[in-house]
Write a structure and sequence with these properties.
Elements lengths: L1 H33 L10 H32 L5 H33 L9 H37 L11
Helix pairs in contact: 1-2, 1-3, 2-4, 3-4
Length: 171
Amino acid sequence: MTLTKSGLGAALLGGVLAAFHIAPGYIIPWLIARDGVSVPWPDTTAEMITLSQGLVGTMRFVVGIGVVFILGYWAGGQFELRQDYRQFLFAVGIGGLIGYVIPILLFFLYAVIVETGPLHNEQLGVTAILLTGRAVGVAIQFVVIGFAGAAFATLTTSTQHSDTTPSQSIE
């Protein structure tokens, strides 16, 4: 059950991360078109774009590193054997990949069919390569960070449950 929850959690986090990767391409043109008039602070559109890029970048870090580490820590406290770790890493990697690829594919198909947004026909090949690389990178990132969280959980739980009887010297 832990593996299923871990895989589904990674898929959800992959989808959120994909949304954070796609969002700036749509948020920035919207901010430029509105010219920042409805937002009392920051004063200029450039400041608003910088602020939104910073917020999106921060959320990418929090979701891609912090929340995946917490997922690994949660699952790692329940594992006993190396086989459990392998299955967990597979579930998190595949879950993150699937969760990331589905919104990216929908975005890509929308851009190809409608031909609006940040993509243009001459950029489709390069964009496909870029998105494929990002998807593989997300899966690798989820595996590495998830393993780090699980290993940290194993280390902290093994020190809490260690034998506290005094050792005897051998003479």
